[in-house]
Amino acid sequence: MQEPVHERLQISPFMAAFIVMAMQFGIGVLGFQRIVAKEAGYDAWISIIGIGLLVHFIVWIMYRICEAVDGDILTANVYVFGKAIGNTINSFFIIYFISACVAVLGGLVEVIRTWMFPNLSPLLFGSMYLILGIYIVYGGFRTVTGISFFGLVIPSYLLFSFAYAIRYGDFTNLLPILDHSPLELLKSAYSMSFTVLGFGVLLFFHPFIKNPEKSKKWVHGGIFLITLIYAILAIISFAYFPPALLNKSIWATLEMWKIVRLPIIERFEYLGIANWSLIILPNVAICLWTASRVIKHVFHLRQRKGVWFVAAICLLLILIVDSRERMDMFTSFHGKIGFGLAFVYTPLLYLAIIIAKKVKKK
Amino acid sequence: MKKYFFIPLLLFTVLLAGCINKKIIDDVNITTGIGIDKEGEQYLGSAMIPVYNPDKSIENFIFTAKGTVVRDLMFQMQQTSSQPIVGGSLDVTLFDETVAREGIPHVLDVFLRDPSVGARVHLAVVDGKAKDIFEGKYGDRGNGRYLAELIESNYKTGNLPLTNLHQFLHDYYQKGKDPVLPYLRQTRPDLVNIAGLALFKGEKVVDVLDENKLFYFKLMVDYYSEGALKIKDEHGESFIKSIHSTYNFKVKNRNPYKFSVTLEVDGMLTEHTGKSLEKGEIKRIEKQMEKQIKKECLALLERFQENKIDPVGIGHFIKTQTRNFDFKKWEESYQNASFDVDAKVKIVEVGVIE
CATH number of the domain at B223-354, please? Predict the structure, then answer.
């Protein structure tokens, strides 16, 4: 049991979905096709739907955890493992959210440098972006939620741009369906899980939802929508690229914009990438908020001070991961930890809570 | 005090936005066409830049350079240009036949690696030198636009299949399918003609299809073929424009492979040289056209087989019908495959007179 968040600071249940969706929809969208198709080929869209179903299940567990301890995951850890071990695990989340922030922001810097401005300074861009993120966190959680809402709604028109690729696609590429073994499909689902990660943030902002029971249908609806978008995007990309070419395309989503031609803009990618920095903004803001909130809980440091500390480390890491290989290494490392936390640690924690409840009752 | 802490920081973001390296449209040379020719052992590259005159006419300026790597050519051209040459608005890229017959892998790499080149760039193989084509003067919108629109309009309303950079790369990387490109020829100093279709095996041109075969080829690869065909029977000649067409491949037998190809064409009679359309004449024209399509399409498929190329994508088709498909075995079985072509023509309109 933790002290409840004042109602003035809480968000409506409907908005909870946008935070989860904003976290799921980040820099991974630009290039997930190549990664999922590596194992399961063009059957990978099945894996995407499969992992989407699994996410629904995990989110259900997450709600159960939060309900069981009547708080967030920080209280849950302390409840199960005691103060010392619980807070040690909790401080690990600080590192996790810092690395999530670096993965998205570093990815954005890399995309801008490859596609638009090769001489963009990561220091300058990163620091300005993080200051904007800090500014949002200063506004409190409600502001973070608002940014998540706009960061999804405003750029959502970009989805229409993929219709151009449909016209040039060959959908027979997907045939024959189920040409791969179940093991390959599972491996592909595993690599897709890196892209859909981020829904775990629900465990941290659960106390901020005004009526958590009502938010369930929205959050599940949001996850369903994101899974659907990923699956459709994958199918369009599979039709647009033959396998050998997709394997070469680091940012398949961006490359599909090369076919778009509008009378007012010759290169649509420039519009798309510029908009993408708006999609990334909620990711950065939520990561900064969550990391600094954990700091507040564990080290009793004010969130306004903690967020500067978090941002400074993020900036430092962005400067370190400045090449393709390092970025690749970093994101796959981050993905593996995220996978472990979301799909392994969360169910185990739930089991531990059930056991702890039984033991404590006696 | 603390409240206004962010204002200077936000001001910085506004001011620093100007610090990025920018390219103003009046201060760059926008390439609209690139040509790669072979001269001796080296490539002769030419880049065409439109020059906008004060009286609104457009002239073309051509940079040339020699080298062995395409990027090196660009770099050399850059050294002779007073303004940076950029490729963000490239319309066409032409290869002379010698280069195309030797293979165009370098060029493919340039296009794939460079994010600034669009996927709608038109590629073409030319009879003669690409540089000579650029040196002509076509239309009043500049040579780049002329060549791009020539190919585009022939795709939309003529017999040319879709052949832009995306389609070329798609077919090149697609297993069981070989790419094709339009084959251009300069007929007059102010006109370029689509003389046929260059057929690739991998990255090399191995055969050139004549222009009068394009209608049949397009029937087998494109759903919306708006091509046209001349039909001759005992009452005179007729000109049929296809409104809509579909193709359908089926596997009839697997060892050896036997395919059935069904082509359905909805056509419109646009000219008839006989006195008038007699009763049953339409039926006769339809039958005649079906016969012609059957014969020519079968001849094309057999010609592709002989050249060991597969621009129609039979290999890709059979892959979509087979689990765990083995492409190595297919190469052999393709040689032994046989085809059954069936055509169904329906003339749905004859114009406003009988």
Answer: 3.30.300.210
